[in-house]
Amino acid sequence: MLPQVVIIGRPNVGKSTLFNRLVGKKLALVDDQPGVTRDRRIGDVDLLGLRFKIVDTAGWEDEDAETLPGRMRAQTEAALVGAAAAMFVIDSRAGLTPLDEEIGRWLQRSSVPVILIANKAEGKAGDSGIFEAYSLGLGEPVGLSAEHGEGMADLFDALLPII
Ligand code: GDP
Ligand code: MG
């Protein structure tokens, strides 16, 4: 069985764009388990020869801000069960938000290895956001542009020792 890697992060950081980039839209399939995992998408990835399953967590995009953290936490914890690694995505253009910091604390308490991804890092607009991401205490962030496909070799280097 291929190791499973879950993509975690608040809405709008580029999780689904990264999922599509890694999988290619044609291979994406929908996992319609009921409950908190109802909107998970699972796909097969071959990243420079490294093969794994990737899970895109979603389903809270339209939630109101009050209930968002609780629902996200339940879904994040469900997604982490059995995962070999988590990719925690932040938006390096927007900088860290309180919700990013909260998710970072959940992930620090989890036993699943975390790869911190500073997305939207194309050009120079993400530089300060990448630097800020160190403060999450989750190691060196991988600067990435899911939309433009930049940084994929660095993602490979970060994943290789883990999965
Ligand atoms: P999700 O809610 O975390 O799944 O985020 P989405 O994948 O839906 O992306 C949210 C928005 O960010 C969309 O408008 C994307 O086009 C944009 N986006 C995603 N990746 C990048 C990136 O690498 N660079 C830039 N500039 N925008 C991106
Ligand atoms: Mg999404």
What's the gist of this structure?
The chain is built from 5 helices and 7 strands, in the order βαβββαβαβαβα. Strands 2-3-4-1-5-6-7 form a 7-stranded mixed β-sheet, sandwiched between helices.
Protein architecture, described:
This protein is an alpha/beta fold and about 160 residues long. It has a single domain (about 5-60, about 65-160), classed as P-loop containing nucleotide triphosphate hydrolases (Rossmann fold, 3-Layer(aba) Sandwich), CATH 3.40.50. About 30% of the residues lie in helices and about 20% in strands. The protein has a seven-stranded mixed β-sheet, sandwiched between helices. The chain is globular, with a radius of gyration of 14 Å. The model has no long low-confidence stretch (mean pLDDT about 90). Bound molecules: guanosine-5'-diphosphate and magnesium ion. Guanosine-5'-diphosphate (GDP) binds near residues 16 and 119.
Please mark out the parts with pLDDT under 50 across 5 or more consecutive residues, or reply none.
none
From the alpha carbons, calculate the radius of gyration and give it in angstroms.
14 Å
SSE sequence, one letter per element: EHEEEHEHEHEH
Specify the CATH architecture. 3-Layer(aba) Sandwich
Going by CATH, the homologous superfamily would be P-loop containing nucleotide triphosphate hydrolases
Domain EngA-type G: 3-163
Binding site for GTP 1: 9-16, 56-60, 119-122
Function: GTPase that plays an essential role in the late steps of ribosome biogenesis.
Protein name: GTPase Der
